[in-house]
Amino acid sequence: MKSIINILIGLLLPIIMAAQDDSAFVHIKTIKGDIVDFTVDNLDNIYIINSKNQIRKLDINGDSVAAFNDVRKFGKATFIDASNPLKVLLYYKDFTTVVVLDRFLNIRNSIDLRKQNIFQVKAISQSYDNRIWIFDELENKLKKMDEDGRLLQETPDFRLLLGKAISPVRIFDENKYVYLYDSTNGIYVFDYFGALKNNILIQHWQNLKIAGNYIFGLKADSLYRYEISNFRYDEWKIPEQLFQSKVFNFTATRLYALKNDAIEIYSIR
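Predicted structure:
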């Protein structure tokens, strides 16, 4: 009964919200350079893509510790998954290829998904057991594979499971659950066996990130933090100094904003 109640609550848009002011953000540092896009891992390492499609890894102090320069073979990376700091995934949508890097950004392996008859993928992620989640758009299934591209498991067709097709743009593996974020339909939460546990009605958030027990994102002129365990929202109007930021990213305690070839880093109170 308790689990049913929790699911029903999760299906409703949470109404607990706390308005915050700019003092919630404390500036830590600025990292300047040729920066087109970036992501961060849970140790606050930063992974930067520059205008030449090279990737650099910076540590928590902003010092460069690794680089990936093999850009001629794969072209422009569509997405970086650094949820596991010891293994980084690069996804190249134009080639439907996943490149697996070690913590020093050396290539461990590459997976051509087309060889597995997977031709349309927008979202990938690392799994808790060091495997790879991908969402097959054509079959409308969540699939898990190993580093050699072998299929390990897959869900039923979501068109049959949910009565409609979904189109996740992000996958997160956090705290024993898999989260699929479809901007139109919200966040679908599954256990590791593919059973649907919840549908969190967070829609049309940009730069969405799940870190620990929090869901972060941006909508209109506000930044949001949603606490999964108690359905609580924190809302902040975007501080004036961040109005022109192109990309936001989050860890459990930090906000990162890319603005004019510089990443501004703030702590979140």
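Summary: The helical segments are 2-11, 158-161.
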